[in-house]
Design brief:
alpha+beta, 3 helices, 13 strands, Restrct_endonuc-II-like, Uma2
Length: about 190
């Protein structure tokens, strides 16, 4: 067990040795621990439903979609994205960024700077092929911005809006069609 005794200089080893904290997500950003509150219910519902949809789409390829899994980006950077798609089944406590093909972040008021700027830049620099950002402006229906890596940076390739089914690539060989409104609708 690691107990924080300094402000920075932490590594992936320190991060991975932390005990899980109920109701919190602890990420490693430039050698510092950053603590975020657990997501709100609507946020988590969107992430869970996206994970289910993505997992069903990539399963036949031997890939897997997971929620809230630790991703090792570099020696001093480890994130816990809302959803990741891995290139294969992973049975470890964390995933190496080289095994991630898609990252999905559901933007929260407290994490919007990281979700919109810092995380996409870090995942693009690490070579993750695709990044999706889910925005729920004013707590409304989700809009999904889908990006693909292009010469080391993400380029917007699709925008999915609630009320309209759209098709978007998960990998170069797998795509999925869905209406973002289905991610927040009641079940009855």
């Amino acid at each position: 067990m690691t107990t924080a005794r300094r402000l920075d200089g932490y590594t992936l080893d320190d991060w991975e040795s932390l005990d899980p904290q109920e109701g919190r997500r602890i990420e490693l950003v430039d050698g510092r621990f950053v603590v975020n509150a657990a997501p709100a219910m609507k946020h988590q519902r969107v992430a869970d439903r996206l994970q289910t949809l993505l997992d069903a789409a990539v399963a036949r390829e031997g890939m897997e979609a997971l929620t809230a899994i630790a991703v090792r980006v570099n020696r001093t950077l480890g994130y816990i994205p809302d959803v990741v798609v891995t290139s294969e089944f992973i049975d470890e406590s964390s995933v190496d960024v080289r095994d991630v093909t898609l990252v999905v972040e559901v933007v929260s008021p407290s994490t919007k700077k990281n979700d919109r700027l810092e995380k996409p830049a870090a995942f693009a620099a690490a070579g993750v092929e695709r990044f999706w950002r889910v925005e729920m402006v004013g707590g409304g229906e989700p809009t999904i911005y889908c990006y693909e890596l292009d010469e080391g940076a993400y380029s917007l390739v699709a925008t999915l809006t609630a009320g309209t089914a759209g098709t978007v690539s998960i990998t170069s060989t797998v795509s999925v069609t869905f209406d973002p409104a289905d991610l927040t609708r009641g079940r009855r």
